[in-house]
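This section describes the prediction task in plain terms. A model, or a person checking by hand, is given the sequence of a single protein chain and must write out its three-dimensional structure as a string of C-alpha cells. No templates, partner chains or ligands are provided. The sample shown here is typical of the held-out split.
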Amino acid sequence: MKAFQQLIIMMIAALPLSAQSPQEIADALSAPTLDATGKRLVLPQVEGAQVELGGVDYEQIIGPDGSVSQDVISDTPVSVFLRVTKDGKHADSPDFTVNVPANWKTDVPAGSNPKPAVIPAILQWKGAEGMWKPQGEIRVGSRGLYDFVKETLHAVSGLPVREAYDDPQYDISIEFTKDPIYGEEGYRIVISPKHLHITAYSDQGAVWALRTVQQIMRTHDGGVPCGEIIDFPRYPVRGFVLDAARLPYTLSELRDVINAMSWYKMNDLHLVINNNFIFHEKYVDAKRDPFKESYAAFRLESSQKGPDGSPLTSSDVSYTKEEFKELVTYARKRGVRIVPEFDTPGHALAFTRLRPDLIYKGAMRYHEKRRCEMLDAADPETLTFVENLLDEYLVPPAPGKSAVLAGCDVIHVGADEFFGDAEDYRRYADGLLRYVQSRHHTPRIWGSLSSKPGKTPVLAKGVQLNLWNSTWMKAREAVELGFDVINTSDAYLYIVPFANYYRADKNLAWLYGHWQPHIMYREKLPAGHPQLLGAAFALWNDSTDLLHNGYGMYDIWPIISSSLDTLSQKMWGLSAPPDSYEQHRALAQSIGQVPGCNPLHTRKNTQPITISPERLHSPLDLPDCGPDYHLTMELELQAAPEGEEQILLSSPTGQLIGVMKDGCIGFRRANGTEFAYEAKLPVGKRVKLELIGTPNHTKLLLDGELISRMRLNSALCVDENFRPRTRELISSFVLPLQTLAPSFHGKIFSLQIQ
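The expected answer:
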C-alpha cells in the first residue's frame, strides 16, 4: 500500500503544473527569490494559474506588494507563503524562508560590539566600538513619555533623571517619526559613546525601546554597547489570558502582571471578568444545588442587582469603575492593552443568579448538570439584558464623561463552551458581536463555530477570534470565514495551576525550542498569514471552590513570569530562538525582574530585624517580607471579646490575626483567602509565637509546640465533603509589616524577623 501511495505521488509530480489542482501546484512551487537589485521579491510563475504573495511574517522587511526594505542593518530571515489561484479556487503553499541581507555598504569594524542579549531578542544589530554609560545623572531629551522614562531609568540605574529637551548634551533623546517604517511597535536605537538616540513611530515603540535599553543596562554594568538596533515584533498580538474571576487578584497584583508583561514586550492582557466553578456535577451528585452554592464572580462594580437585592459585583474582591479605568491607563503607559472578557452565554452563573428567568431552557447535548450557568441564548431578552449590562461600561455615564472601558479598544464577548442548540448560539453570538461593533470597539470571541454548524450567519469581518481548540473551531475554517485569529491552543498554551491537566508551564523547554505562533494542535497556518494576529497563553483557575487548595498569586508568580519570558521570545522574535532554553533561563536570571516590581516581596536586606521596645506599639513601615522568614513574637493577650477580630500585623498585602472571629490564630491574604490554625492564644499568659514562612507552607509554633492542623476558611474553598479544607493546603503568606497590633487587646514584648 505504501509503495502504491508513493507511485501516485510520483505520477502527480510528473504532471505539468498547469494540469494539477491548486493545492498540488502550491505544494510543488519553488521558493521565491530576491531580484538582482535586492529591492523586490521574485515569485515563481505557473502557466494556467495565478501565483501571488500570500503573506509574510515581517511586513516591514518584505511588503505585501513584494517590495523589500532598503533599511536592513543585519541579515534577517523572513517567512513567506504563496497563494495559488486556479479556476476560481485557491490554495496556499508551505512556508518559505527568504534571507534578506543587510543593505548598508560599509564593513563592520574589527572589534565591534556583539549583539547584546535581551528578552525577547533584538531583531537587527549593527555593532560599533565603545560604550554609552551615563555618569552622575541621565539627561533626557523627549517631549513625550518623560514620566515613564524618569521612573524606569532611575529604577534600573539608580541615577537621577532630568528633562533636557533643549540641552545638546543630552544622554538619551527620543524622537517620533511619521514614517511608519518600523510599524506601530518598532523602533531604532543609535548608540554612541556620548548619546543614545531612540526613533519610534508611537509611544508604544518608544516604550519597547526603553525596555531594551533597561535590560542591556542590567547586564552591562549600567551601560549600553555602541551600535545600532532596528527592532519590531513578528506578530502584533502577544498575549496573556488571566482568569481573574475564579481566583481574585488585587489591583496591586494586576499591576505587577502588567509590569512583567511590559518588561518582556507582551502587549495584550486579556482579563476574564466573570466566570464560575465549572464542575457543577459535583454538587448535583451530592444532592446539592450548584445554582445556590457554586462559586461565581463578577469583578467590576455594577449597579445591577438580583431579584432578592443581591448585587452582581463580587463581595470578596472587585474593582470600582474608576479603579479599572486607572488600571487601563496604567497599562497603556507601559505598552499593554487590557482586553476585558464578559463571558456569556456559558460560564455565566453570576448572570443567571441575577436573572434566573433567563437560564437556558433548550435541549443540551451534554453537561446537563451544568445548565445553571447557561444563559438562554434562544430568548431575545437575554441579548437585551447583556447589552444593557455592557452599556454600563461602554457608554459614557454623562456628557463630558468617558466610558469605563473607553481605553479598551477590544472587548471580549466570551461565548465558549455553550452546550445548547447551534442555531440559538449562532444568533446570540452574531447579535453580541454586532452590538460591540456598534459601540465602536473591536469584538473578540472564543472560537466555537466548527462545533456549532448552522444556517445563521455570524459576523466575522472585523472580529478577532481565539483559536483555543480545534474541535470547537478549526483554524482554516476561521480564516476562510474572515476572522482575524489568535492562537490560544489549549494543548500547548493552557495552564491550570496545581491540576493534573493543561500544564504548559511544565513544557516550556519544548515550547521554546519547537512551538511557533502559527502552530495549533494538529493544525498549522502559514507563519505570515495576514489574518494571524499572534498568540496568547492562558492561566485558568479551574481549581477553585471544591478543588481549591489555597494557592494565590505568590504561588503562581513563578509560573506566570517564566511563561512570559519564554513565550515573549516566541511571539516577538524569529522562528528560530537565539539560544538554547538553558541559556535563555540563565539570561532571564541575569536580567532579573522588572525594575521597581517585587511581586514575591523578596527581602533586599537579609539581616535579622529586631524591633526595639519603643516601636512595639507604633507603625512599623517596613517592607513586607515574602518567604523565607522566621517571625518570633513574645506577647500576652489580655482580652478576647467574642466575635471580635484582633490584628497583630497588617499591610495592604494581608493581616496576621492573633484572634479571629472564632478565637483561633490565623492570617488573611489581600484577596480574602483566609487560613486558621486550630489553636488559640491563651488569655492572661505571656507566650512565644513563631511564624515560619516558606514557599507553599506557613508554620505556627506556640511556646515551641508546632500547631499541625490548619483549615482554609475562604468561601472559595471547601473539600468534596463540603467542609473546610484541611489537607494538602498551599498556605504561602507574605508577612505584612506596615502596622503592628492595630487592634490587639494585649501587650507585645518583643518582635524579631530572621
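For orientation: The first helix runs from residue 2 to 14.
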